[in-house]
Amino acid sequence: MSEVYIPSKKSGHIILYTLTTCHSCEKTKKLLDDLGVEYEYKYIDLLYGDEWEKAIQEVKTWNPRFTFPTLVIDNEKCIVGYRENEIKEALGK
Predict the structure, then answer these.
(1) Close Cβ partners of 35 (under 8 Å, ≥ 6 residues apart)
(2) At residue 85, does pLDDT exceed 70?
(3) d(Cα 55, Cα 43) in Å, to the nearest integer?
(4) Could you give phi then psi for residue 52, rounded to 5 degrees?
(5) How large is the C-alpha radius of gyration of the chain?
(6) 6 phi and psi angles, rounded to 5 deg
(7) CATH code at position 20
(8) Residues 30-83: tens digit of each pLDDT
(9) Among 46, 50, 64, 84, which residue carries the largest CB count within 10 Å?
(10) Is 74 exposed, middle or buried (0-12, 13-18, 19+ CB in 10 A)?
């Protein structure tokens, strides 16, 4: 399971690039769940081959340092790391 869609209240297109071993990634997922927003996430470390290459390029487009979590909102805003207040503000929560 490398890509997961979490249905809920629509707050724009939200994608979270994450690692299975990342504590900050799990905190970010929990925050999004608690806020009740619809989002999808990709476990980059579970991808292989072309899927892995494509995901790396997606992340590096937003976050050239390739660090996690990388949260992209509406293909306009990127938040890197667990930044609770910044995430809430970006989502209008």
Answers:
(1) 11, 87, 88, 91, 93
(2) yes
(3) 9
(4) -65, -45
(5) 12
(6) -110, 105
(7) 3.40.30.10
(8) 999 999 999 999 999 999 999 999 999 999 999 999 999 999 999 999 999 999
(9) 46
(10) exposed
What's phi and psi for 58, nearest 5 deg?
-60, -50
Three-class secondary structure assignment of 71-85: EEECCCEEEECCCHH
Range of the domain at 53: 3-90
Token pair of 10 as six digits: 């629509």
Q: What are the residues whose beta carbons fall under 8 Å from the beta carbon of 9, sequence distance 6 or more? A: 36, 37, 38
Rounded-to-integer distance, Cα 69 and Cα 79, Å: 8
Return phi, psi of residue 65, to 5°.
Answer: -75, -15
| Closest by Cα among 49, 92, 88 to 71 | 88
Sign of the dihedral defined by the CA atoms of residues 34, 39, 44, 48, in that order = positive
